[in-house]
Amino acid sequence: MITINNRDTRDWRPGITVRDLLNEMGYVYVLITVTVNGELIDDNEYDSFEIPDGSFVRAIHIHHGG
Amino acid sequence: MLTGILQETDSGLYACNVPGTTGRLRRACVGIIGCGGLGSNAAVALVRAGIGRLILADFDTVALSNLNRQHYFLPDVGKHKVTALAEHLRAIDPTVHLDLHPVEVTSESLNDVFNPVDVLIEAVDRAETKHALIHAWHRLHPDIPMIVGNGIAGYGNTDTIQVIRTGTIIYCGDMISESRDGLASPRVLIVAAMQANVALELLLEGNQS
Fold it and tell me: For chain B, what are the domain ranges?
């Protein structure tokens, strides 16, 4: 199982990538940062980074304002 | 003389600080990218807390429309933000060490401007820039915390403002609102103070003196 943002869960399957998970969650916004078990994942690794079973994922939408 | 008066332990500027924290804070260096609503107010909070050194960067000048939430005053309009902010910070503590960079920080220049810091506060306006700087900083310094402001617009809804900790990247804000929705002083100051407070927490982790 994968836990997303301490709120949602998805079944884990072998080989599931960050991109797969974002698509399943409907997160299509470009300006998003993703951490898997506290590790920030680079944008260009979304298609290749495989999420381990039992992971805690944070997907944060970045907004204007400073 | 002035330095001595400020540092009197029982009556000086930092006499009311949490006991045992001032020495460590005086030796700390915090970087702030962007000196607008978040950055200017976080800087004031950090200098009042006793941080010894700040590195401040912002390419912009003070506009009248900034004064509804940023720590500037009418005579500051037209000045570089880092210059005006430095005057205000030195009016609180003339001994604080300030490195001022009136430039736009990019992923390429990030390391030159903010090396070394103990903690970096991200306080820029554009989401695209925030996103790029988060990734660039993590590539450069995966072990040095970055405290990101994310979602500060509107008014009310105080209980939606939160801290999210993901490794060394820590987010403060409501994670939802956009600045185009309008910016009001209270929510901006809350998030700025949260960023400063998280910085103190990180700097004082395992505090011994």
Answer: 21-203
